[in-house]
Amino acid sequence: MIEARHVCPVAPVVVPVIGPVIGPVIGPVIGMASVNPIRVPRVQSAVLIPVKAFHAAKARLRGHLPDTDRARLARWMAERVLDATVDFPTFVACDDDEVAAWASARGAKVLWGAGLGLNGAIDQGVATIGDLGFDHVTIAHGDLPLPTGIVAVDRAARRLGGGSGGVVLVPDQRRDGTNVQSHPCGAHLPARYGAASFSAHLAQSLASGLPVAVRFDERLSIDIDTIADCRHPLVARLLESVLSAGALA
Hints:
This protein is globular. By secondary structure, the protein is of the alpha/beta class. It has one domain: Spore Coat Polysaccharide Biosynthesis Protein SpsA, Chain A. The protein has seven helices and eight strands; from the N terminus they run ββαβαβαβαββαβαα. It has helices at 67-84, 97-105, 117-131, 150-159, 197-207, 227-230, 236-239; strands spanning 13-15, 45-50, 90-94, 109-112, 136-140, 167-171, 178-184, 212-214. 29% of the residues lie in helices and 15% in strands.
């Protein structure tokens, strides 16, 4: 069960300008198999979640957690992100059979991106979602333990520019990574994940001509990469039911 949403003082910090948005409708889905065409109403949002193979995820926790715990932790966080976006059409970008089966079983559409890497898989996913007729996409990492604020990020992005839509970025705790971003599908904003991705995403968003807001959210800023992240006071107690006894001692 996901706890009630609690966001720290997160009034978006708006960084100027204005610009266009996108339109259309329809299309089949994706990757390994297609489904019936979907008719999409205007100004419809979708969520894109890149998910790494569970058995290979959280490599920086090797030496701190056994492999079974790392895989269980990765799946647990991805499930929480999917649960937080249950009211949205949700797409999972992956290149692992286990993740694809898991995502399909939970009602998400699978975007198969073998060999593309994280940025390539996200760019392909955004293009596919736009081709299906969605106007807006929110990209959320699959390793967010407290993801319930994702819906608010989407809503804030669609309200920018007087309702024409803009870009909202949510940095991680270190103001280095980009845990969540939301923008019109037709905006030319290639994924820049990796070191200093927040600065890169902010710079290209400001250059795009779209309205831009940065949302500092205490909970969405938490992602789990290191053992220190696992011990974060907002997370450690939750992980007691996920990890082996004494794992965080």
